[in-house]
Write a structure and sequence with these properties.
The protein has 16 helices and ten strands. The protein is of the alpha/beta class.
C-alpha cells in the first residue's frame, strides 16, 4: 500500500509539474513596470535625431541671402536635411579669408560654396582636391558698375579709367577681360585697383575718386547704393555674349569615395529646399529664414533683394532636362574656353575632374 500510494503521489506530482510547465510556457511574459510610468504624451518616442549624421556646411561669405546659402538655410529650417538623415551645422566665412577652402582640404567641413570662374581657375592652377556637386548660377552675378551720372557710357569709355576689382582666387577676373576685349581694350588699357566689398568706394566724397567703375555683384551693391540715394548703371558680361557659371556647392573628392550617400542626401535636401524657396507662396517665409541667419541688424528688404535677384539665375535649359542644381557639360566647357581665350587658364580642365553630376541626377531619380 505504501508503494502504491507513493507511486500515485509521484504520478500526481509529475502531472502537476507538467501542467505548470505548460502553463508557464504558454503564459505571456509580464511587462516590466517602471517605477514611475510616464504619460503616453511624454513617453520618449523614437526620433530621427538619434540617427542623424553630423556634417558641416560653411558658406563662402558672411550670413546673407545668397541663393546657395538660402538653399542650406531652408533645408535646415524646414527639416529637409533631417528627412535625409543629416544634422547640418551651418557656418560662415570672413570676406576674403579663404578659411573654408583650407578646412575643406583638411576635411574639417563637408561642403562650401564658390563661384564658377574662381573654382575653375583654382582647379587649373592649384588643383585642390575638390569637386562640384550642385550649381546655383547659370549666369554669373558679377558686373561692372558706374554711377548713373558717370561719363562712362560704353565699355570703350573705360580706357584710361580706374577700374576696381575684387581679387578672389584669380587675380584678374576673366569675365572682365572678356568684356574689355569686346570693346577693343585689354587690362593694360585700364588702371586696375583692388577694392573690397564696400560699394561706397565709388562715391566721389567717400571714395575720393579712387575708382571710376567697379566690379559688383548684381544682387548686392546696386541695391545698397540705391538705398544710399545713388543710382547706378551696369555693364554685364552677357551684354557682350559672355556667360560664366555662378555659385556652386563643392566638396572634397575623398567624400565621393568614402561617403557618397552623405553627398547624395545633402544634394537631395538642398535641391528640394531650392524648389520650395522658388515657390512665390513661400517668399515671406524664405526671407524670415534668411533673417534668422543674417541677424537683426541686417536690412530685411536688402536681404530679400539679394536672394530674389539670384533666384533668377538658377534655371536654364539644362535644368529643364534634369532639374534644379544641374548644369550641362556644354555650359562648363564654354566657360572654360572663354577662360582659355582670355588668358585666365592655359587649357580647359578635364570636366570629369571638377564636376560630378551623379548626385543631382539621383535627386530626380535619373
Amino acid at each position: 500500500m505504501k508503494i502504491g500510494r507513493s507511486l500515485g503521489t509521484l504520478t500526481l506530482l509529475a502531472l502537476m509539474a507538467t501542467v505548470l510547465l505548460v502553463i508557464a510556457c504558454a503564459a505571456p511574459t509580464p511587462a516590466a513596470v517602471p517605477t514611475s510610468a510616464p504619460a503616453p504624451t511624454s513617453a520618449p518616442a523614437p526620433t530621427k535625431a538619434a540617427a542623424l549624421k553630423p556634417i558641416t556646411f560653411q558658406a563662402g561669405y558672411l550670413a546673407q541671402g545668397n541663393i546657395s546659402f538660402v538653399a542650406a538655410y531652408v533645408a535646415k529650417e524646414k527639416g529637409f536635411f533631417a528627412d535625409e538623415g543629416l544634422d547640418v551645422t551651418i557656418e560662415h566665412s570672413s570676406p576674403g579669408g579663404g578659411e573654408q577652402a583650407q578646412r575643406l582640404v583638411a576635411k574639417d567641413i563637408e561642403f562650401t560654396t564658390q563661384t564658377g570662374a574662381d573654382y575653375v581657375w583654382q582647379q587649373a592652377h592649384n588643383k585642390p582636391p575638390f569637386v562640384a556637386v550642385e550649381v546655383f548660377g547659370h549666369n554669373n552675378d558679377e558686373a561692372l558698375l558706374v554711377l548713373d551720372d558717370s561719363p562712362i557710357k560704353t565699355l570703350a569709355d573705360l580706357k584710361g579709367k580706374k577700374v576696381g576689382f575684387k581679387p578672389a582666387e584669380s587675380a584678374q577676373p576673366p569675365w572682365l577681360l572678356a568684356m574689355l576685349k569686346a570693346a577693343g581694350l585689354d587690362f593694360k588699357d585700364v588702371n586696375l585697383v583692388q577694392i573690397g566689398f564696400d560699394p561706397r568706394v565709388i562715391l566721389p566724397d567717400f571714395g575720393e575718386g579712387r575708382v571710376d567703375a567697379m566690379q559688383v555683384f548684381r544682387s548686392n551693391e546696386p541695391d545698397t547704393l540705391e538705398r544710399l540715394g545713388f543710382k547706378s548703371r551696369l555693364f554685364k558680361p552677357s551684354d557682350v555674349g559672355v556667360n560664366f557659371l555662378g555659385q556652386l556647392y563643392i566638396t572634397n573628392k575623398d567624400f565621393v569615395q568614402s561617403d557618397p550617400e552623405m553627398i547624395r542626401s545633402f544634394v537631395k535636401a538642398t535641391t528640394k529646399a531650392l524648389a520650395w524657396a522658388l515657390d512665390p507662396a513661400n517668399k515671406k517665409e524664405v526671407t524670415d529664414i534668411v533673417m534668422k541667419y543674417a541677424g537683426d541688424k541686417a536690412d530685411r528688404a536688402h536681404q530679400e533683394f539679394i536672394w530674389t535677384t539670384e533666384a533668377a539665375y538658377v534655371t536654364g535649359p539644362s535644368t529643364q532636362q534634369v532639374g534644379l542644381g544641374y548644369v550641362s557639360d556644354d555650359e562648363w566647357n564654354k566657360m572654360m574656353q572663354y577662360m582659355v581665350d582670355f588668358g585666365s587658364i592655359d587649357a580647359p580642365v578635364p570636366l570629369a575632374q571638377i564636376w560630378d553630376p551623379q548626385f543631382v541626377k539621383s535627386a530626380y531619380g535619373k
